[in-house]
């Protein structure tokens, strides 16, 4: 079952209801035995209400020489 982490920027209490106007959130789906995919963690970030979020993970740039060091060191088998 995915874990949802919510980082709110603006919350309001209206008539006893919890209302989020603007937030950025992450959904984590762990598969540590890698039974359903070839990596351990699936992370999805999203936002609403005009909030922004930083993309998850490491970005491979044009400076990569494909030496494989980062792949060997990755504990999530990415």
TrEMBL record:
Q: Where does the source fall among the domains of life? A: Bacteria
Q: Which residues form the 4Fe-4S ferredoxin-type domain?
A: 55-78
Per its record, how is this protein called by name? 4Fe-4S ferredoxin-type domain-containing protein
Q: Which organism is it from?
A: Pontiella sulfatireligans
Which lineage ranks, top first, belong to the organism behind this chain? Bacteria, Pseudomonadati, Kiritimatiellota, Kiritimatiellia, Kiritimatiellales
